[in-house]
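Chapter summary example.
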Amino acid sequence: MPDLATHDVRITGFASYLPELMHDNDSLPPLDEPVSSADLERIGVYRRGWASAAEGVAEMAAIAARRALERAGVAAGELDLVILANWTRRRYLPEFAPKLKKLLGADRAFAHDLGCACAGFLYGVGTASEFLRNPRFRRALVVASEQTSQRARPGSRGTLILGDAAGAFVLERVDVAARDAGRLIDYELAADGDHHQIMEISDEGWVQTHIPQRDLCSLAARSVHAVSSRLLERNRLGLADVAWVIPHSGTAGVQAALVRELGVPPERILTNYASVGNVSSASIPVALDHFVAAGQVRAGDLVLSAAVGGGWYAAAALYTVGPVPP
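The structure predicted for these 326 residues follows.
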């Protein structure tokens, strides 16, 4: 692998959080129109979390962050910056990152919120890694905390798909020889203004898509392929060199389109969409934590993660996984 500017940025801890209330398909409130078992199979989600009033964006983020910090062996007071990705509960004032900093006790860190829809976590990772190139900063926390269930119209089929979760990475600029950890090799960020209008939030607060679902799935797959190809080519790698692809989960249709577009065997694309739903920008760290805990992703594995987001955003990151303390 080439020696990149991010060669000394390490992922020293990662973790996730799911709400206490996890709905299966039988416990959800009734839908406006009943769905058949065949419909449920096509949708592909059998379990998803709904955050309670006590599980706010900052509160879920704080739990995932504390777990990641513990794994990294980093105290919150040692952090230099905190980035919180969230779009599902965005508001003008106050935002969530300063509250997260307070909850953690990250007294010396600066903190800011970040949107970028479902690509927000990877945008945060890329942003943090650039700060860590500056000798003024050494440790960063990137968290995605989403209440995606709030963006589905009650009674619609969207309630079957969308869930809530939080996930976090601790990134450090460290001596490569002195620390055994996952390595952030490189990242790629992109935005496409030609498609900025295809998705929006209605006045009532629900996600609306203005192109056919098949076209949306195809656009998402093409965007992931483009941003991932640029990243791999720059690093003189191919998809055959990657152990696992862990993408933003999107929907079952997006996943099927992604398999076709990338030409990667389905078993090498990992998502826990079926058991958590579409948790938006939190999907990548939540899935990574899940598959490492299950023993499927192991220390040293090379992972490609990619995401798209309404707006239209695309992002990808290439990294290795470090050992996870028991």
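To summarize the output: Confidence is low (pLDDT under 50) at residues 1-6.
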